[in-house]
Amino acid sequence: MRAAPIPNPTLSLSCCCCRFASPKCVPSAIPNPRFRFGASSAPLRSVSVSTPVASASSSAAEEPSSPITATSRRRLILLRHAESVWGGRFTRDHDRPLSEVGRSNAISISQKLEQMGWIPELILSSDATRTKETLEILRENIKGLNQAKVHFIPSFYSIAAMDGQTAEHLQKAICEFSTDEILTVMCMGHNKGWEEAASMLSGDTVELKTCNAALLEASGRSWIEAFSAAGLGGWKLHGILKP
């Protein structure tokens, strides 16, 4: 499927965090890209809660003899937060916590990710309460997940409401915060943006209900190369993981 241009947002909503300055992500760094970045400006703002990234992840362990300079499988998990409660009159949408069903579903999705071996080494998450609580449950239930580096990115909350913007924004965030040694990345956020991004990257129609995860894969010596080679519609959709 050929890349389709990303439409302009229909929601009048802007965020200073939507552009990047990292030299890893500028268009000139991408050989013959099919999916190009826009002009870069200020680096994306995040709150980092991190521990050192494990030198040998479950993903890297699958290919112990393959150097990072060789083409590697790169796995992307797009996880929508678990179910949250409807806030009261004075509760902001951003601050809504998980419901009991949401907590149970987060435990279930944790177990399934671990069983499949899709353990992220880098986690990029919205800073909304419901995504933070979902991540907390995942870290309590997935062995080794506490070794993953975590960044809470405020713009993940707002970008998900903008038509056609999330896929490119996630690509930029991944290129900004990842390294070539990281082979599995998880991005946690909201609809409509998350299922829209999964659909655009895979070329399939993807529906993500709460606590559903789209499992995507592409190949490249770096994340920039993987995004460039796969483009829009070229990521392999392994499936939708559900609680």
UniProtKB/TrEMBL annotation:
Question: Which SUPFAM superfamilies has this protein been placed in?
Answer: Phosphoglycerate mutase-like
- Extract the Pfam families matched here: His_Phos_1
What name goes with this protein?
Answer: Phosphoglycerate mutase family protein
PANTHER family for the chain = OS09G0287300 PROTEIN
Q: Sorted alphabetically, which SMART domains does this protein's record hold?
A: PGAM
CDD domains documented for this protein: HP_PGM_like
Q: Which residues bind substrate?
A: R130
Biological source species: Rhynchospora pubera
